[in-house]
Amino acid sequence: MERALAVVEPTDAATELVRQAGELAVGVDADLVLIHVTTEQAYSARREAMGSIGSGAENYTISKAEEGATQFAHDIGQEVLSEFDVEYEVAGLLGEKAEQILDAAQKHDCDHIFLAGRQRSPAGKALFGDATQRVILDFDGPVTVATG
Q: Residue 128: left (phi > 0), alpha (psi -120 to 50), or beta?
């Protein structure tokens, strides 16, 4: 492993996964990229909520959403990785989760992905899709998945 990508989410399992990715990166002298993906559905819902309370939905742009996602990844990195001497960079993305993860891994030349998954039944995966499954199938390298 030379450069790993860790997907930051607002869950305890994802935070622990970032910690483990940092620990492993230090152990093998690898770099780390932290990303947070805001889905278009979450972006639209927040924009709608801001409009309904008069907060000016027009001010919540795509670039603001990406800035917020970048800040979230940065904050988790500072909180979780401060105990490790690991080089890392952060990025915030907006779009379909699996696609953004795969694109970021390619863009940053990552050879390992860490992400938190959820347990879903096969029927749930068929009906709703599963970003974790798509990343596992489409990434040409190891993928570490934590559920919890």
A: alpha
